Amino acid sequence: MEVKIESIPEGTITSPEGFHAGATCAGINKKAKDKLDLGILFSEVPCAATALFTTNRIKAAPVVLSQERLQQGRALALVVNSGCANACTGEKGLAHAAEMAELTAEGIGISPEDVLVASTGVIGQPLPMKRIRTAIEQVILSRDGGHELAKAMLTTDTFAKETAVTVKIDGNEFAIGGVAKGSGMIHPNLATLLCFLTTDAVVEMDFLKSALKKAVDVSFNMISIDGDTSTNDMVLLMANGLTGSEAIIQGSDQADAFQQALDQVCIYLARYVARDGEGATKLIEVTVGGAPTIAEARSAARTVATSSLVKAAVHGADPNWGRVMAAVGRSGVEVVESKLDLYIGDIPVVKAGRLLPFGKRSVIQLLKGSEVSINLNLNLGSGNATAWGCDLSEEYVTINSQYMT
Amino acid sequence: MEVKIESIPEGTITSPEGFHAGATCAGINKKAKDKLDLGILFSEVPCAATALFTTNRIKAAPVVLSQERLQQGRALALVVNSGCANACTGEKGLAHAAEMAELTAEGIGISPEDVLVASTGVIGQPLPMKRIRTAIEQVILSRDGGHELAKAMLTTDTFAKETAVTVKIDGNEFAIGGVAKGSGMIHPNLATLLCFLTTDAVVEMDFLKSALKKAVDVSFNMISIDGDTSTNDMVLLMANGLTGSEAIIQGSDQADAFQQALDQVCIYLARYVARDGEGATKLIEVTVGGAPTIAEARSAARTVATSSLVKAAVHGADPNWGRVMAAVGRSGVEVVESKLDLYIGDIPVVKAGRLLPFGKRSVIQLLKGSEVSINLNLNLGSGNATAWGCDLSEEYVTINSQYMT
């Protein structure tokens, strides 16, 4: 069975068949009047849809609404805005989210129940519904509108994150596209993460759910910008089935290919979200091998990628390897000091727990790059994982200490 | 039963009867040659002793040694150095820690088994034993040497943390003293915490252990500077019994008074450690009331005090209350948005989950103070707790990104 996964040049969320999108400037954030801040995604035919939502106990109104609607496992459209999170807004917020869905449904001519809602931005302020009502009417949907939607969902992100791939397997061909936004707002707030994924494959519901969970586990669940979890996180996958007739089910070769492609799209987007963390100047990639289990490898990799001290050291290109050792030691994962190997890039720094006479200059040179890789081998088992983060800069603090004042 | 707890003016670890201390400048950190960096604490008579150690899987050599020695529940002396953590130093590190104890024992004329060792500083470098050997011989012990020891254990701390109280109960009188150090090094590294506590009360061993655990739970376990756990953390309590004959046991009035005084000493030191966090300009005090359990109240308070986004907002005196809501929501604790009350200082900002029309200027004024208090009521139960942290400043990043380069 030959599987070919190829990235689509300038691929985006509307690259798969039958998806349309568009965006407009609603002026939700008064200080950024010319920015695209409201987008709509629409599929010509009903999609099997599933999503993962924030685990925060304080959930934004659009999260509550979308979570409820997705119980039916089906969706046709999504409306998303940046500039206001519609979180901590009580009953009024829920009514606003419902109205956004209603207006979108009306414009397209579908049922409001088939429209999902996502928001990102400042917490605790009501949506400017008057401006949103006008804006929703103005959105023009098109087959290459994914790029506009990718821009409309951005806040303090410095670039749009979008990608798509085609998968060829066994005579079949389908595509998967995705867009994501990362940390911060124009008025910076939370490291809110939104990601929307589309595919024109026919995918059976149970497998769709399991595939999304698996893909998120190796991508969005492996990045950290500042350890805070937002009230608005949402990763959505919509499959409209336009390119096939037989559904992809768990355990098939098609399923393996689908999973592989979905992982690839999610990892691509997740890496860019990490790279574009607030104030970040570089991407940090942490791999942990030889852990007793994959879960422990993940936990260790995430702890190192999240450590403020490691992040600050990488920012200053400071070869302070002891901080990596201390971070992995506090990760809660089984660690035996005398077995630990540590590499910065491909330079061995610690072997069996002991410092090697490493070339400090070469390590500093590696740390000065725009992508820094830290590799640990616990030498205890076969679990391995990769996590991504970014450096901690003075700029991060500046961005996040000057919002309302 | 009348209990009177009074703080001793200029109190320190040698305020309780029979404790002697001293310090010298060993030159462990070559860049800070004139700094006191090696100290010794000694009790005239054997102490009942217990300690809590780092939960990091990577433990410094002095932690391994002291942990082993304290199994006998007894100690007579302690030797502590700053400037080098003696962590990730393998067999050689263990030999160095043992030699420090031996030299100290020799100088005083006691058994090495009765000497504990603590270190703080950079990870992964060997102790300069030649300098340490000379230095240990030079330490002169005295009844008011606690102040010198408090200075010798400092690294990037900007001031010494020391205190002592007398407790009068039922005709009895005893004292409790303590010293602590917080985050960083002259070459900044980990937020290593060392705390040594002494008392001249007679304390039964089981109660001594339980009292220390309880005091640490409401003090050092409730502070966070950057979420990293060091390889060298150690909180030690030594009771030499010089002021009494009958041992204080669990459940007695004396025990309650002892616990109250020990909590007070530990909270005093912990608050100052938080206040003096690397780059900090202010203390943040977070109280959580109305949690289902005390454990949940602690967890919620700690999560808010640790949030980078909350810390950065406080730094900039930015009334970004949504970040507090988001932090408590992700703490893993039961939270019902519609029941949450939030105060900044004594100004109500959120009532039953909804934003109140609060005076932004008054809140900004409070946030500009050197101590900021954030108060949450979950209105779900009777668990409450207080956590302390500090703001996140550009200076924190600068300190921690420029160590070796």
Structure summarized in a few sentences:
The first copy, chain A, has 405 residues and is of the alpha+beta class. The first copy, chain A, is built from eleven helices and 15 strands.
Oligomeric grouping of the chains: homodimer
What is the succession of H and E elements of chain A?
EEEHEHEHHEEEHEHEHHHEEEHEEH
CATH class of the largest domain in chain A: Alpha Beta
Number of domains of chain A: 2
> Which pair of protein chains has the largest interface, and what are the residue counts?
A-B, 67 and 66 residues
CATH architecture descriptor of the largest domain in chain A: 4-Layer Sandwich
Q: Can you say what the CATH homologous superfamily of the largest domain in chain A is? A: L-amino peptidase D-ALA esterase/amidase
Biggest β-sheet of chain A: count, sense, barrel?
9 strands, mixed
SS-based structural class of chain A? alpha+beta
CATH topology of the largest domain in chain A: L-amino peptidase D-ALA esterase/amidase
| Count, helices of chain A | 11
Give the terminus-to-terminus CA distance of chain A: 60 Å
On the 0 to 100 scale, the average pLDDT of chain A is 91
Poorly predicted runs of chain A: 185-191
